[in-house]
Predict the 3D structure of the following.
Amino acid sequence: MSNEIYRQINQISMELRLPAFRNDLDALVAKATKTNAPYEQLILELLQTELETRLINRKKAQLRIAGFPQLKHLQDLVRTELPADAVEKLPVLETLDFIKSGQNVILGGSPGTGKTHIAIGLGIKACQAGHTVLFTTVSRLLTQIRESHSSRTLRSLEMKFEKYDLVICDEFGYISFDKAGAEMLFNHLSLRTGIRSTIMTSNLAFEKWNDVFGNDTVLTAALLDRLTHKAHLVNMNGKSFRMKETRKMQQTKK
């Protein structure tokens, strides 16, 4: 290959933003020359390398954009320690079919039983499968809604919220809302009903959700109806992982 052609290829690949194509060019040209491979094969291998690199980078970007507080993978779960209902339903959830059908997942039960780990693990797997994911806590989401409402950018936030293939709302029930906050959260979550999937984690039983919504029975019933319709309900009541770890540490020190 002449220096001028090589220079032009490099220049064009830079303008087209094809770094893998440019980086592998020398090695593949040398390989093609040595094996007398047809030019079509050379072009195909260069394009395949570029595509694979872009897919890897896209998945990394999706993980970063999702905003996971930490990376907790499903394979890291000690499944024998999970509540029985989670052990039974996790294989179905791992297929991610609930995302394709726009179904919700409600992980409800005792603190420290693996709700957030499962939610993040499913979120990571969804990112790796090419889905767009957002992780947030309910309190953070409500703060964003309030701020957007004040700055008159609420519709922009709603449009972004609607488009995620999967939204994970962690820690429902840690704080209660006033009437205005409850209505804002209800309206926001309702945007995804029957269209996109939401995973909700909560330490509260459904009959206690009314307390979080300021004892607004009608609003609570409406939200529960939307969130639980055709949803996967996972009973996460059981012994806390954190308590077990603490006891093991105490026994080790003795």
